[in-house]
Amino acid sequence: MPDRADTTVLIDLATEVGSLAPVPWAVSRLRAELDAKGVAARIGTNGEESGDVAVVRVELGDVPAPAETFAIERGAVTLIRAAEPRGLAYGLTELADRVRCATDPVAAIRSAESPLRGPAVAVRGVLRSFSSDVLDRPWLRDRDFWTSYLDELAVQRINRLHLALGMQYNYSHDDDVRDNYLCFAYPFLLEVPGWEGVGVTGLSASERAANLAALRFASDAAKRRGLHFQLGLWNHAVRPELVDSPNLRYPIHGLADDQVAAYSAAALRQLLRECPSIDGVTFRVHYEGGVPEAGRAEFWRTVLSGLRGVGRALDVDLHSKGVDQEVLDAARATGARVSVSAKYWAEHQGLPYHQASVRPLEKARPDNGDGLRGITQNERRFTRYGYGDFLRQDRDFDLLFRVWPGSQRFLLWADPEIFAGYGRMSTIGGARGTELCEPLTFRGRKDTAGQAPRDLYVDPELELGTSDWRKYAYEYRLWGRLMFDPDADRQTWLRYLRAQFGEAAEDVENALSVAGKVLPLVTVTQSLSASNNFFWPEVLTDMPIARGVKSATYDFDLSAPGTWGGVSPFDPTLFESADDYASGLLTGRPSGRYTPEQVASWLERFASVADAALGRARHRVGDPAAPEFRRIEVDVTVAALLARFFAGKVRAGIGYSLYRQTEDPQHLRDGLGHYRAGRQALAEIVTTTRGVYASELAFGDRPSEQGHWSDRLAQVDDDVDEFARELDEAIAAAKPVRATVQPGDADPRPVVTCDPPAEFVPGKPLVVRAEAAGEVALTLQVRHLNQAEEYLSIPMVPAGDRRFTAEIPADYTDTAYPLEFFLVARSAAGRDAWIVPGLDGTLANQPYYVVLGQRV
What we know:
By secondary structure, this protein is of the alpha/beta class. It folds into four domains: 4-117, Chitobiase/beta-hexosaminidase domain 2-like (Chitobiase, domain 2); 123-488, TIM Barrel, CATH 3.20.20; 513-733, no CATH class; 752-853, Immunoglobulin-like. It contains 24 helices and 26 strands. The strands form five sheets. The protein has an eight-stranded parallel β-barrel, surrounded by four helices. It has a six-stranded mixed sheet with strand order 2-1-3-5-4-6. Strands 18, 20, 21, 24, 25 and 26 form a six-stranded mixed sheet that branches. α11 links the parallel β12 (280-284) and β13 (315-319). α15 runs antiparallel to α16 and α17 (505-515) runs antiparallel to α20.
């Protein structure tokens, strides 16, 4: 604590500046943090300066940079400069954060400086879903929750909150809908003039009013903090009980099917008037929102007309799945700013680069006449799990990304390198940014709340109640600050960790960082289903390897042959399956893609580094029994064990694929050893989490969305046993070996570099140049930045002095799309191949080049 003589901070700002939102809130945050440290703060003018007063001067002026840009300058006074109020707020809350983490808060203010910096990503969002009436009503109506939660988001420079209503069911094909609270949201929130007969059976007028008051409070509180408040209305189905839902908890009455669109338009307009701080609305416009796709354009034209006449500018965001020109035209007709929001890595959290290609299953199909879902499932199928064909440079709508919650739902996920990667790659092709489906999204979905608390801890010392978001404060910090500035000073998160864990801070950082790479890598490479309802690598429903069987859980979402060895990674252009890897080994002609062997090696390294860092942290932290440290310790331990489990499973799959192609039982023997090691890691997860996490980890009503690692262990045991029996049978059969792996080590890899062109001129040839420090053959792989297309393969021609060139023809550059390309390098002997530029050791870079077309 500083001496009393030095415990005053003067915040010097003009009255007109101090009244501009979100500056008053930011000033209150700085004053609150100073007060918590015993330091008085007052508003005044620089005429009151003296030696024992630290002065913070706030100036709104001409700063030649994008919105939100700010600088903190160190001198006789600490000067915050920005061109608009949100930038000033970021400067003030930067000081507040330094005070919060400092032992000497006045010294922290006097020494603070930050170069003029603007946001790398315009939209840095978080999606919070209402998924359970039991678990989510408490926080929805809790003003203390909203106050502290929104404070944290805004301090970490997250600038958009999407409150999503109606995501707990996909109404078009979910049977037995029960918990439909706020799914068709309007009648849960207000009575619409002219539609007084529409209501919710069992919902009182006072409860409806409380819901509206909660929404108004949350949106108003977001605006005071400078957050864009986006309301998600993900369902427009009124009567799911007509599908097969006799147990519907909140039936909606007084509305005929042919009245839904007109009522929705009137209700939407009324809701936006009642909540003037709502800045935009997100709609799910494909069939899962309850509206058949045949003839849907007229329905959505009517609903979206409710955005007109509200008296303010609004954003309308269309979830991209199945979006076509007719729906885009309906949105444009409202006069609102139109965005399309695409999934980043299907329904999962993957690595920060965007898929170089989508799986073959996601390619367009002929129309099959399905009036319910034909557009999404067929001709626009490639829009389901990536950016599709939405990145034309001449588009008249914005593109956003959404990181879906399929991979990691409750374990901590906090790698600065990966979050910085999202900051660098969320703007691909001119996209505006990304929103993250936050931890615990879909908890209790489809009426599965059960008895476990929302945060899933059964250890009372670890439970956080409606403040469960506090467990993920470090994650929010990395997300917001590294999206704002991917090159942010490491101290921006280390100071937080030092305040929490003292001398163990860097070890905690390293443990969380490497643990945070595990499941993104698993997601991208062991891609059993694009749907989060089935593939949940955090608590994996096992897919057998032995006997080459198909899986009842995953078969619907896998290409032939539907076996473990043939599973396509989410990015089949950069990663290969076990079967393909085995073929490359046997022919001595590798594909150049990243192999399952490399993936397993990465996972084993991550586990070792995480364990070592966590061990050091446990030794250095002041109180290893403190809840804040224990939550991290458990989650990092589980991540490291998951890395070992998946490494063992991947290596077992390699052995099995080699056995199937050679009939050499030695490959089965090797694979079984790895499988048993992976199984042991899974067993250790069961032991580690016993008495910590609930025995029922429910995020939906399918077996693959529920359960615990203990029942997954039984699944793995069955497959390991079957694997062993197949080995015994292979040994007994004593069949001659059909093929062998080609002998010899991989060839040396010469350094290959490529300096991508700054831009291209549409309709003119584009020359790509590369250099290689050794004997190598190079092939250029190029396509438009359009996931509906295939790659064009162009051999590169030697041009002397180890240089190579390839020409992309004029008819291919005659496009409104940017170009994406990479090189495949092959050693002279052909025994090794690799991708250029490829992934670096962080797994957080962009492994290909993107070149924009020159605008005329």
